[in-house]
């Protein structure tokens, strides 16, 4: 895929290198590598045991980028922000049996030591589907897709709105599409399907399935119909990179709605989704003497002050 404007970040409990190696061994065309390390000095008290250890581990899944954050146990990934893996028979030369087999193999690897949230089987929306939380707490939805439908990438982040944000999936998708309309390739709303009747805490008009695109990236947005609230937090966040301070200021103004969540470029929007609003090439900026310590004391990132 082309330039990826938004990069999901997954919070890990001091084991990001292990998590990355696991995904590289399980997912097709995937590799992981340490991208940055904690400095030896200038750390918060809670970070001192991690001095010199990996800070971020990048995971490339056939061109789709995820980042693992090596940190403490303050946050844990949850079902509200999961990852759909689309198994299109066209990826397997049109062989549905091969696509099913590939899906099944990865399902077994992800499910080992994890928890099945929706058993692997046939559902009205897919002939083969399952939802699993892996041993590290990350949620995956594996789906056999219809090759006759519109093509979609292998990895799609899926946002599920519940709690105070129940019923907000369509509104959130509309807001994100408008906010990132200037991304190369534009942005758009895709298919939408309501529940049709009350399901769990979702109304009949709520989204059972929705999708939107930012640049070349597709996302899913739905309202939780399970009846159990999970809620968003920093366990999985979305990083938006910005070319300059003006773009940081624009996104920060639009997305940050909870002052208590503001820290070193992190913000929480009105739907509860956690964002990191950062300058492009932040890694280079952090090479400046004392930059990491200055970053830790910021809320919105100000490039000239790093």
Provide structural commentary.
The chain has helices spanning 16-26, 96-111, 169-179, 245-255, 282-285, 291-296; strands at residues 6-13, 30-37, 54-61, 64-71, 81-87, 115-123, 126-133, 139-144, 155-161, 187-194, 207-214, 217-223, 236-242, 266-268, 274-279. It has an eight-stranded mixed sheet with strand order 6-7-8-5-9-12-11-10, covered by helices on one side. The longest helix is centred in the middle third of the chain and has 16 residues, at 96-111. It folds into two domains: 6-74 and 234-305, 2,3-Dihydroxybiphenyl 1,2-Dioxygenase, domain 1 (Roll); 81-223, Signal recognition particle alu RNA binding heterodimer, srp9/1, CATH 3.30.720.110. It has six helices and 15 strands. The chain has 306 residues and is an alpha+beta fold. Helix content is 19%, strand content 35%.
Features:
6 helices; alpha+beta; 7-stranded mixed sheet; 306 residues; 2,3-Dihydroxybiphenyl 1,2-Dioxygenase, domain 1; single chain
Lay out the secondary structure:
Elements: E1 6-13, H1 16-26, E2 30-37, E3 54-61, E4 64-71, E5 81-87, H2 96-111, E6 115-123, E7 126-133, E8 139-144, E9 155-161, H3 169-179, E10 187-194, E11 207-214, E12 217-223, E13 236-242, H4 245-255, E14 266-268, E15 274-279, H5 282-285, H6 291-296
Parallel strand pairs: 1-4, 5-8, 9-12, 13-15
Antiparallel strand pairs: 1-13, 2-3, 3-4, 5-9, 6-7, 7-8, 10-11, 11-12, 14-15
Q: Please indicate the count of domains.
A: 2
Largest sheet: 8 strands, mixed
Under CATH, the topology of the largest domain can be stated as Signal recognition particle alu RNA binding heterodimer, srp9/1
Number of helical regions: 6
Rg result: 19 Å
Shape: globular
